[in-house]
Every structure is written in structure tokens, then in C-alpha cells.
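thought: user wants a sequence for this fold. calling inverse folding tool.
action: design(structure=
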């Protein structure tokens, strides 16, 4: 079977590898001209890592991942530790260590594993047509390609999603209320332990670091603010210096270490209300095209990887028709993904000061947190994953 994948991000390439290894003829198209992922790094919790292990990349992903042994919250004003606890229970319960990874490193690994000769960059899909026997991707340059099945992994502004949901309610993005700044710096214990995820909180804002490979840390800042505020890259870290002026010494150290010319991204955070039409005929969507979520629970990339796993299993094990297989994929994925979109939204509402009393109560709860509550939430996001054969150990 020939399969077209639109989108060369984490979801598209992992799906491509899974389907290719089942013996199918897979080709990937993406409008980007080179590997320039949005965002410096991502959290791979055990559910996401397990999919990559399933794809045969366990050793490679472990080499890319940071050794994140513990998690701590600190007061953004004073640097006082509010709570500090081991993440070992997550590994013990799930059977897999979580890894923060640099997004570009993971994406390059997936592209290379899939086969760069089968990836066509700089090729923009502008439309899709399905005649009931084949499906065709139409490109901006007037050319096209035809296959038996087409997967849209083309992100939050998906063209393939427009085809899949045509005739239904229009899918709109919702602003999450904050802007995220992120990048990579050399790890520095003056910011936070080099083997820990450390988060500073104050006034509805957050500043965090977590380890990735090669002695680096992924950093991110959340700034609650209206959408559409002007920003030019020439401003560099000026908005951060203003928003986090007077914060704890560890935050000041991080701000001083950031070189905007090397690594600094700014992105407004949006999500999409859950919807459950992921399939039309021989066309399906996955990843952000199907469940664009805010990063507040760190499950965006993991959900895309779960999509690839579920799709691969169903393509391998069901034989009625392409259409039947894709509907089964939709059935097993859309409810879980929608639930995590809403969980992330609720988490963001709690932490970003939209209701000051709610956020103040969360800050206060951190002072008595022994880790069990946070770990219960992390495992709650993982427990429903399709990769969890056997479930969590108790």
C-alpha cells in the first residue's frame, strides 16, 4: 500500500517509520525547506518514549535525553524551595524513564531513520481529493501525488484537517492567555540542579529549566498577556528582562545566560477545543492537526507519538478496508486526546493567575507537597495510553 504523510514533524515522521516498517511504500511531504522545528525542546514522558522504543530507537533516544532525576518548585521572588521530590516513582510505575529532549535532535533522528530520500521538503500541500479508491495530494506548484491512504500531520493550521472536517463546524484555535519564551543554555547549578526540573513561580508567571543531552538545559518562561502583542526578534530578551525583573538569583542567572542570537523562541500559546472527526474516507489526521494542546502537562509530542503507535497497530491488524481501519483509529484516539487537551487547559488556568485566588492556593499547596500529588497527576496523564500493555505497577 502506498501512503502519503503530510508533515515532517514528530508525528508525521514517527507515523512514517511505523508504516514503512510494516512494509508499506511511504512518502512524506512538508512545506518547510529545512529542519527548523518550532520550540527548543519537549518533554517525553514514558508513554512517548515507549513509542520510540517500539520503533527501535531506544538507545538513540536515551542518548538524546536529559537525566531528569527530580522535580522542584521554588518561590520566584526569594528562590526558596517550596518542594523537591524524586521522579523515580514515575519510572517505577511505568517501566520507562522520562526524557526531556532537544526537539531538533529528535526530529533529525526521526527524519534520518525514516530516510531522507523519501522526505520532500519545500513542498506545500494545498488540497486533498479522494475518489473512493485512491487519495491525491495537490501541491502549490501544480503537481500532485496519489496513494491508497493519506495522513495529515501538518500541524495546528492543518490543510488536511480542512478536508477531513469539511461540512462540519469550523475548527478554530483558542488563545490560552500567555506567551512562552524558550530555548537552550548550558546547564548551571546556580539556576537549578543539572539533573532536575526546576520551576520558579510568582505572580502567575513561570520560569523553568530541565536537562537535555550534551550538558544543556531547556528553559522556558510563561508570561500571561493578551494575544497579538508586537514583538520583533531584534528585541531579543528585553521582554523577559522586564517581566522577570527582581526575581530570584537563579532566574537572574538564567536571564544573563540567554543569548538570543543562539537560542530564543517566542510563541503565543493556543489550543483547539476537542473534536472527534479525524477521518474522512481514506484520509486521517494526527498530532497537532487533530488535538492541538497547550504545553501545560507536557503531553503534546507524546500524544502525537501515541497516534503513530495506534495507527501502526491498526494498519497491521485490521484488513476490512482502509476506511474501516482509519475509523477504528479515530475511535481509539479522539476521546483520550480530547481529555488531555482539556486537562492541559485546566492546568494552565490554575497556574497562570487568571483567577488570583486559585493560583495563590496552588502556590500555598506547593509548600506541603511531598511529590505524591504531582506524580499522581503525571501518571494520570499516562495511564490511558495505548502503549501501556499491562498498566502501571502498584
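)
observation: tool returned 394 residues.
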Amino acid at each position: 500500500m502506498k501512503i502519503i504523510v503530510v508533515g515532517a514533524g514528530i508525528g508525521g515522521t514517527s507515523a512514517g517509520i511505523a508504516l514503512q516498517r510494516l512494509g508499506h511504500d511511504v512518502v512524506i511531504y512538508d512545506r518547510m525547506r529545512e529542519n527548523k522545528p518550532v520550540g527548543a525542546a519537549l518533554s517525553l514522558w514514558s508513554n512517548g518514549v515507549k513509542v520510540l522504543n517500539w520503533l527501535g530507537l531506544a538507545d538513540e533516544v536515551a542518548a538524546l535525553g536529559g537525566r531528569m532525576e527530580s522535580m522542584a518548585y521554588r518561590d520566584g521572588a526569594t528562590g526558596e524551595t517550596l518542594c523537591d521530590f524524586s521522579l523515580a516513582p514515575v519510572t517505577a510505575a511505568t517501566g520507562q524513564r522520562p526524557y526531556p529532549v532537544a526537539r531538533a535532535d529528535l526530529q533529525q533522528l526521526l527524519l534520518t531513520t525514516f530516510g531522507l530520500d523519501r522526505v520532500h521538503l519545500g513542498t506545500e500541500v494545498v488540497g486533498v481529493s479522494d475518489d473512493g479508491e485512491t487519495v491525491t495530494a495537490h501541491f502549490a506548484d501544480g503537481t500532485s501525488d496519489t496513494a491508497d491512504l493519506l495522513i495529515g500531520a501538518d500541524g495546528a493550521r492543518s490543510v488536511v484537517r480542512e478536508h477531513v472536517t469539511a461540512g462540519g463546524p469550523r475548527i478554530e484555535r483558542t488563545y490560552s492567555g500567555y506567551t512562552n519564551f524558550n530555548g537552550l543554555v548550558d546547564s548551571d547549578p546556580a539556576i537549578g540542579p543539572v539533573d532536575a526540573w526546576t520551576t520558579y513561580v510568582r505572580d502567575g508567571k513561570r520560569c523553568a529549566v530541565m536537562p537535555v543531552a550534551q550538558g544543556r538545559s531547556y528553559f522556558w518562561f510563561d508570561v500571561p498577556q493578551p494575544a497579538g502583542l508586537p514583538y520583533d526578534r531584534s528585541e531579543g530578551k528585553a521582554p523577559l528582562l522586564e517581566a522577570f525583573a527582581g526575581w530570584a538569583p537563579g532566574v537572574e542567572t538564567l536571564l544573563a545566560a540567554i543569548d538570543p542570537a543562539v537560542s530564543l523562541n517566542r510563541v503565543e500559546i493556543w489550543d483547539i477545543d476537542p473534536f472527534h472527526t479525524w477521518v474522512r474516507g481514506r484520509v486521517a489526521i494526527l498530532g497537532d492537526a487533530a488535538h492541538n494542546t497547550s504545553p501545560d502537562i507536557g503531553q503534546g509530542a507524546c500524544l502525537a507519538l501515541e497516534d503513530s503507535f495506534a495507527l501502526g497497530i491498526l494498519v497491521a491488524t485490521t484488513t476490512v478496508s482502509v476506511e474501516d481501519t482509519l475509523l477504528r483509529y479515530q475511535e481509539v484516539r479522539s476521546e483520550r486526546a480530547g481529555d488531555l487537551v482539556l486537562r492541559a487547559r485546566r492546568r494552565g488556568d490554575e497556574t497562570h493567575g487568571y483567577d488570583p485566588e486559585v493560583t495563590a492556593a496552588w502556590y500555598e499547596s506547593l509548600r506541603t507537597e511531598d511529590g505524591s500529588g504531582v506524580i499522581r497527576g503525571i501518571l494520570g496523564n499516562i495511564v490511558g495510553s495505548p502503549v501501556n500493555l499491562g498498566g502501571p505497577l502498584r
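thought: summarizing for user.
answer: Here is the designed sequence. The domain at 2-173+271-382 is CATH 3.50.50.60 (FAD/NAD(P)-binding domain).
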